[in-house]
Structures are given as structure tokens and as C-alpha cells.
Design brief:
By secondary structure, the chain is of the alpha+beta class. It folds into three domains: about 130 residues, Herpes Virus-1 (2-Layer Sandwich), CATH 3.30.40; about 100 residues, Zinc/RING finger domain, C3HC4 (zinc finger) (Herpes Virus-1, 2-Layer Sandwich), CATH 3.30.40.10; about 350 residues, Cathepsin B, Chain A. The strands form seven sheets. Strands 16, 20, 24, 25, 26, 27, 28 and 29 form an eight-stranded mixed sheet that branches. α9 crosses α14 and α18 packs across α19. About 10% of the residues have low confidence. Belongs to the peptidase C19 family. Its EC number is 3.4.19.12. One of its GO terms (biological process) is protein deubiquitination. Keywords: Hydrolase, Metal-binding, Protease, Repeat, Thiol protease, Ubl conjugation pathway, Zinc, Zinc-finger.
């Protein structure tokens, strides 16, 4: 068909063409319903009306749905890349930016054309013959930052340091202190490295002790606690380039910039122009840790790994600290329920047809997109890094897959969440629970099609008070969290010998080799037995005795899920409330049987604790914080309001429980909101819609209203309040028909024998840093998923997992 006819057709459709404005979200890097890009065989089509992007096949679905006929077609072709391009050492924790990690991605050049559907007529761009409105529309699209990149930048970078509020008016004491150019030592111990100069009084003191025992002896931070002198600079990081020096603000609790650092140093006789760098800054140490990960066993480094491709073997590109998401999604999409719901039972065009006008904000659409991307095999083809014509037979070391970037899914699933919407590293467990919550909400009213139900089970807590009477409380959960009892280690003698040897070597100034390290080895069975053991509950209010007492709680499972997820509690609090990651192996067998954990309910001869009808007492007890708990937490430096909330939300169970709650809720947006009391809120109207929502969870209406009053109308806090109140047992009583129907009958249940089908491992000292990797059993063999790298696993580290996924074996 002639270009004249195409031009005439284009002019007749100008009313369907829009010129983008600053507020428009423009997609031009990836299809909204598949992972096609301008690099794909068919290129990418940008709808010049909606500014959504579609692949070669999906663009016709969009035309059928919307009738929009005019598109900008973008096709990217690879430029030749010089093989001798030098590999630069990164100076910034970032991917794909100047100074960041060089991922050696090839460069592409793009060609553009205007396409008119349904006949796929093409006109060249740029061209002065095109209507001005079309030219302005395309120019606006090409000039704009793509929504994909704007919403989820593929960068892993430290925050830019802010100027300290204490720098300009910093007080400096005239005490005659002159700092020599070298030979520094801590004023309170013998440390000669990791030293910090306090910029107020010139004291040289060692830095903080790390969780693993390395670092300093906390003398610098203790000096701040005593004097409140705010700023310190790390000796060994001071050079003529003062901006590179590591300045720390204790009251601001972060590395900062001191614009007057030169003046502050000269006060103590320091000629910074002659100093040389001898220490790593905080940011450099973080960079060094991330570029020198020595977690060989978990990542199976140094082994000839066979790269895998095809259906179910598609890697996920790291978007910048997104490995937590990748490891969870790879594991979740290896379960039957998620495969059926978002791949086998939904085609892409069907999900798109049901999606709203903007499919990027529809969770079902983005999960179907991700499921098809990961499971179809379409995007899992080998890419050879050498000569593509004369490929040797054994090019496994030079073959890789590009993987797919889950940008749109990550942007959507993290919307409104302060952590998952960021590019910071996150806890894989928290993300897993967040994902299940989103999926469940997205399938509200359709439990039969909700894949998150395959993980859900009922925990039954039996509480025995000294009166001899009992209460049974039921709660829903998706994960069984297990403590790791180190006293149950099967190699205690070897560990004791190792610790003795380690102490001797350290006293002699020697270091242990990695192969000399002996870690405690604890059987998984011991962790499960620890979960089943009776637990003391102090300050328990007995409705039979009308007073507080010590009760005993035992936990059992009232239902067994199709997929059982075990969470190993490797992050604990040491004496002095110092967080620590347990350096321990857990022996996890391929088959487990938890049938002995099945709950039996109310037994013959047992008498239930009487119900308490005094709602006022119930509300008041729920709002009174134990002063002893609050005082202990406050003495550690936490705000009193936070301490009171921690005590209340853990029902005054104890300091450790309150501390754990506090550490996990410090970033809550409402953490500084005033505590609302039952008496204050008793007259406030209750949203009946929220009441009905809580009732749908299996609780009584009265309990729902009490919880909402106690939580100021916040449904999440209301649910936490219910679970934290032993007195609300009637809400989940085993004889309650509503609770039973919700918690028992609607959930999958079966035998207690399970087979290990996958596990997620964590490397690093904290869930907020490090790296996550997934190992999954597929077609009878173990496969490692390390972001976009997918390979056969020759030696899966089953004893180093953080989350274990078991599938029912019968």
C-alpha cells in the first residue's frame, strides 16, 4: 500500500493522537503485558494516545480493546562492542551508572517509525512530511524519561551525604590538644585502627564493635554518650580531598558532610594536605563487602555449573538490591497453585482483556505477566559471549541468559510501602508475607482461586493457667517460625575445641583460616521440638483467678497447608540487646513428618477458662503498659512512647518480646502517633465496614469493635491487638462455627509428611544487607537461581537456608 494512502490514513486519525504532558507516564522500554522490549525481534510499539507500550503480538490486543490505531515503533539493534574494553573498578554502589559496576552491556542504536493499525502501515520517522501533531507527540515520548526507569531505577547506590546540622556552629574546646600525623592509638584501649577523632575535644577513640566481634570497642560512641560532642572524623580517611573524609554525626546517626572540616582539623594542628589515605570510609567498606562477597558455598562459586534454559528456568535481573524479590518469586512460582493461577489458567490476552485501562497498576495482570515471563521459556535463551558462529562444544563458561527485569511488578507490589518501594535491601520473609497479603486481597471473595491459600494454616495455642483451666486460641499463619536451640547441636565437643583454638590464636595475634571454622550443627527436628515445647507466659491475666499469674502455652497446628514454609530465626538479640546473626548449620532432611504437631482441641475433662464480659477491663488492660518493661527499654535510648507501644502490643509479655516488636516496627509511619485508649475512643463511631472485614477473618462482632476501638480504627493494629489478647479466645474458639469455617474448612489440609522443594538462603550480617539466593527442586534435580543466573546445583547448601519450602508428600 502506498505511502500516500498511509499518510492520508494517519491524518484521518489525528484525533486519536495526544501530545504528552509532564504529568503523563510514558512507557517506552518494556511491554506492559509481556517482557518484550525494543531489542525484541518485533520491537516495541508505543500507543500515541495512552503512552502504554506493547510487543509485536500484544499491540493487536490493545488495538482490539481500545481502538487506538497510531503507534511509535521502536527497534533497537546491537552495536559492535570492543572486546578489549577495560573493566573499571567500581567507585560507587550502583549498577549502570557512571562509577558503578560495569555490567559490560552492549550498546544499541534505535530506529523509529510510525505504525497505523490494523493494517500495520509504516511511515518513517523523523520526517518533515508527518503531521506536526504526530511529530510533537513522538518528540515528547522520546524526550521523556520512561516510566519504567523513573519508577524503578536499576541502581544500587548509597545516599548522598547531607550537611550536618551541627557542623557550622560546632563548639571546639581549647585544651591544647595537637594531633600528630601518624602513630594514633585509642585513648582507652590499645586499638590502632578504626580510630575516630572527636572534633570538639580532640579525643581519639576506637569505633563501634561489629556484630561478629570485629571492629572497635565502642569507645568513641561511649564518649559521645557521656559528653554529647556530636561530630567525629575517621583518622586515615583524611586527605587533601576533604569531601572524601568520613565524618560521622552521632545525634543524626549517619555519615555526614562537614563543610568546615578543614577549619575544624586545623584547630587541632592537622595539616590535611600532607595526609595520605590509610583507612576505608564507611561507604567504601560497604562497597568492598559487596564487591568481594566470599559466600562461595551458598552461591556454589568455583564450581562448573551447567547453565539452564527453557520453561521454568528464566532468571530475574537484579534491579538494585532486588534479590530478595527474585528469590521469593522464583520459589513461589514453583508451586502448583501459583503456576495454575497466573500461568496455565490465564493467557496474557485474557488477563489484559480483564485489566483496567492501565494494566501496569493491575496486580493480576502483572502477576500473569511475570508468570508467563518466568515459566514460558520465551525469554530464557542462551546468549554466547564469544564468537556466535564458531561456538565450541563446551562453552558453558561463556554462555549466559539475560533474564527479565521485574520492574513493573516491583513498582506495583511496593506501592505505598515505605520499604518495598525503595531500592534498599529487604527481608525476604517480610516480602513473602507482604506478597501473600496482596495476593489474598486481590482475590478477595474468591478463595477457591486464591493461590496464597496453599501456604495458610491454623495454629492452635493452648493456655493452661494454675487454676487447671485452659483456653484455646486459633490464629492464621503462613509461616512457621522456628528458634534454633544451639544447646541441641550434635557437634558440641568440636565447637568447644574450635572456640578454644580460636581464642588461643587471637591472643597470639593470628587469624583462623576459613576451613578451620567449626559451626554448631543443629538438627531441624530439634527446632520443631523446641516449637512444640511448653512456653511460660508471665503476667497472664487469668479470668478464673481474677489476677495475673504465670501460665503455660503450647502451640500445635489445627491444619496442615499444601506448602509448609519454615523460617529459621537466625537473627537474635544477645545480652545487652546487641543484634546478632547465628553462625549455625541446620541439618534439614529431604522428608519431614510433622504429624505429631496436629492439635487435638479441647480434651475430655478439660475445663475452659471463663469468659470475661467486662469490656472496660479488657480495653484498659490492653492499653496499660507495664512500667518495668517501659523503663528498661527507655534506658536503652528508645523514645518512651515507642516503648509503651511495644509493651502494649506484646501484652506486657516481657522485655525481649517488646524489644523484638520495637525493632520490627521502628519505621512504621504511625510509630509516633499518640496512643489511643479505650476510654477515649469508646464514644467514637466505629466503621462498620472494618467491623465486617474483621468478622470475615472469623472473629465475633463484639471482639471486632473492641479491637477497632483499641487501635484507633486501624485494621492492621486491630488484628494484632486481637492476637495479643488471651481474653479474646472466644473469637477463635474451636467450637465457634464462624471461626471453624474460616480457619479450618476453607483452608487446605492433609497429611503431615512433607518433601523439601526449595529454600532461600541469606548471605550477610543482617536481613537489610547482603544477598539472597534460591535453590529449587525442578524435575528431580536442584537448580540455583541467583538473580539472572540459573544453573544446575551440584551441591545445594541445604543446611544454610533462611526460609525452607516443603510440599506435601501425600
Amino acid at each position: 500500500m502506498s505511502g500516500t494512502h498511509a499518510m492520508e490514513l494517519l491524518r484521518s486519525q489525528l484525533s486519536r493522537v495526544r501530545i504528552p504532558e509532564a504529568s503523563n507516564r510514558i512507557y517506552k522500554e518494556e511491554c506492559c503485558i509481556s517482557f518484550d522490549t525494543p531489542k525484541s525481534e518485533g520491537g516495541l510499539y508505543v500507543d500515541l494516545s495512552s503512552f502504554l507500550a506493547f510487543g509485536k503480538e500484544a499491540v493487536f490486543w490493545n488495538y482490539k480493546k481500545t481502538g487506538n490505531p497510531v503507534y511509535l515503533h521502536i527497534k533497537a539493534t546491537k552495536k559492535p562492542v570492543s572486546e578489549d574494553r577495560p573493566l573499571k573498578k567500581p567507585t560507587l554502589l550502583a549498577i549502570g551508572v557512571e562509577g558503578g559496576f560495569d555490567n559490560r552491556e552492549p550498546e544499541y542504536e534505535e530506529k523509529y517509525s510510525i505504525v497505523i493499525l490494523p493494517d500495520h502501515l509504516m511511515l518513517p520517522f523523523p520526517s518533515v512530511e508527518l503531521p506536526e501533531k504526530v511529530r510533537l507527540s513522538v518528540d515528547g515520548v522520546l524526550a521523556a524519561t520512561g516510566a519504567e526507569r523513573r519508577e524503578q531505577v536499576a541502581a544500587w547506590t548509597t545516599d548522598k551525604k547531607q550537611v550536618s546540622a551541627y557542623a557550622v556552629n560546632l563548639q571546639q574546646i581549647d585544651n591544647g590538644v595537637i594531633i600528630p600525623p601518624s602513630g594514633w592509638k585509642c585513648a582507652k584501649c590499645d586499638k590502632t585502627d578504626n580510630l575516630w577523632l572527636n572534633l570538639t575535644d580532640g579525643m581519639i577513640l576506637c569505633g563501634r564493635r561489629s556484630w561478629d566481634g570485629t571492629g572497635g570497642n565502642n569507645h568513641a560512641v561511649e564518649h559521645y554518650s557521656e559528653t554529647k560532642y556530636p561530630l567525629a572524623v575517621k583518622l586515615g580517611t583524611i586527605t587533601a580531598d576533604l569531601e572524601a573524609a568520613d565524618v560521622y554525626s552521632y545525634p543524626e546517626d549517619e555519615s555526614v558532610e562537614d563543610p568546615l572540616l578543614g577549619q575544624h582539623l586545623q584547630y587541632f594542628g592537622i595539616d590535611f594536605s600532607s595526609l595520605k589515605k590509610t583507612e576505608l570510609t564507611t561507604a567504601e567498606r560497604e562497597l568492598d563487602q559487596n564487591t568481594n562477597f566470599d559466600w562461595n558455598r551458598i552461591q556454589e562459586s568455583g564450581k562448573e555449573a551447567e547453565p539452564l534454559f527453557g520453561p521454568g528456568h528464566t532468571g530475574l535481573i537484579n534491579l538494585g538490591n532486588s534479590c530478595y524479590l527474585a528469590s521469593i518469586m522464583q520459589t513461589v512460582f514453583s508451586t502448583r497453585d501459583f503456576i495454575l493461577r497466573y500461568y496455565q489458567d490465564q493467557k496474557l490476552n485474557e488477563a489484559f482483556e480483564r485489566a483496567p485501562a492501565d494494566p501496569t497498576v493491575d496486580l493480576n495482570m502483572q502477576l500473569v505477566k511475570l508468570g508467563h515471563g518466568m515459566l514460558s521459556g520465551k525469554y530464557s535463551s542462551p546468549v554466547y559471549e564469544g564468537d556466535e558462529v564458531d561456538k565450541p562444544e563446551n562453552m558453558t563458561s561463556k554462555v549466559r541468559q539475560e533474564g527479565i527485569p521485574p520492574r513493573m511488578f516491583k513498582s506495583l507490589i511496593g506501592t505505598g510501602h515505605p520499604e518495598f518501594s525503595s531500592t534498599r535491601q529487604q527481608d525476604a520473609l517480610e516480602f513473602f508475607l507482604h506478597l501473600l497479603d496482596k495476593v489474598e486481597r486481590n482475590n478477595a471473595g474468591k478463595p477457591q482461586s486464591d493461590p496464597s491459600q496453599c501456604f495458610k494454616f491454623v495454629v492452635e495455642d493452648r493456655i493452661l493457667c494454675p487454676s487447671g483451666k485452659v483456653s484455646y486460641n486459633k490464629r492464621l499463619d503462613n509461616v512457621l517460625s522456628l528458634n534454633i536451640p544451639l544447646d541441641a547441636a550434635i557437634n558440641k565437643e568440636e565447637v568447644a575445641a574450635f572456640r578454644k583454638k580460636k581464642a588461643e590464636k587471637e591472643s597470639a595475634g593470628e587469624k583462623l583460616n576459613d576451613d578451620e571454622i567449626v559451626r554448631p550443627r543443629v538438627p531441624l527436628s530439634a527446632c520443631l521440638e523446641n516449637f512444640a515445647a511448653p512456653e511460660e507466659i508471665h503476667e497472664f491475666y487469668s479470668t478464673a483467678m481474677k489476677s495475673k499469674t504465670t501460665a503455660f502455652k503450647t502451640a500445635r497446628l489445627a491444619s496442615f497447608p499444601d506448602y509448609l514454609v519454615l523460617h529459621m530465626r537466625k537473627f537474635v538479640m544477645e545480652a545487652g540487646w546487641v543484634p546478632k546473626k547465628l553462625d549455625v548449620f541446620v541439618d534439614v532432611p529431604d522428608i519431614i513428618d510433622i504429624s505429631y504437631l496436629r492439635s487435638k482441641g479441647l480434651q475430655p475433662g478439660e475445663e475452659l477458662l471463663p469468659e470475661n464480659d467486662d469490656s472496660k477491663d479488657l480495653d484498659q488492660r490492653g492499653h496499660l503498659a507495664d512500667e518495668a518493661i517501659v523503663s528498661q527499654l527507655a534506658s536503652m535510648g528508645f523514645p518512651r512512647l515507642h516503648c509503651e507501644k511495644a509493651a502494649i502490643n506484646t501484652s506486657n509479655t516481657g522485655v525481649e518480646e517488646a524489644m523484638n516488636w520495637l525493632l520490627s516496627h521502628m519505621d512504621d509511619p504511625d510509630i509516633d502517633a499518640p496512643i489511643s485508649t479505650g476510654s477515649q475512643n469508646s464514644s467514637q463511631p466505629i466503621d462498620e465496614g472494618l467491623v465486617n472485614t474483621i468478622i470475615s477473618f472469623g472473629f465475633d462482632a463484639d471482639i471486632a469493635r473492641k479491637a477497632l476501638r483499641a487501635s484507633g480504627g486501624n485494621i492492621e493494629r486491630a488484628t494484632e491487638w486481637i492476637f495479643s489478647q488471651p481474653e479474646t479466645s472466644t473469637a477463635m474458639d474451636i467450637n465457634s462455627s464462624s471461626a471453624a469455617s474460616t480457619s479450618d474448612q476453607a483452608l487446605p489440609d492433609g497429611g503431615g509428611k512433607y518433601r523439601l522443594m526449595g529454600f532461600v538462603s541469606h548471605m550477610g550480617t543482617s536481613t537489610q544487607c547482603g544477598h539472597y539466593v534460591a535453590h529449587i527442586l525442578k524435575d528431580g534435580r536442584w537448580v540455583i537461581f541467583n538473580d539472572c543466573k540459573v544453573a544446575a546445583s551440584s551441591d545445594p547448601p541445604k543446611d544454610m537456608g533462611y526460609l525452607y519450602f516443603f510440599e506435601r508428600a501425600q
